[in-house]
Amino acid sequence: MPANEMQGVATKKEEKLALLNQEIVAFAEANTLHPNEQMFREWIVSRLREMIKKGVSENAKVLCFGSCHTGLLLPWSDIDVVVQCPVEIGGSDTNGAGTSYESESDRVRERDGRLLRRLRSIIEDSTLAERKSVELILQAFVPVLKFIERTTRIRVDITVNTQNGISSSSTIRQWIEIYPPLRPLSLVLKQYLFQRGWNEAYSGGISGYLLVNLLVFFFQQQADLLPTNFAALFEAFLRFYGNGFDYKRFGISARLAKRFIRAEDRRRWRQRPPDGDCLMVEDPCDISRDLGRSCYRVGEIFKSWNDVYIRLHLLSRDGVPRRSVLSEFVQVSPEWTERRQFNIKLADCIANCVSFASIVSHAGTAEKDSGKESEEEGERARR
Question: pLDDT at position 372, please?
Answer without folding.
Answer: 54
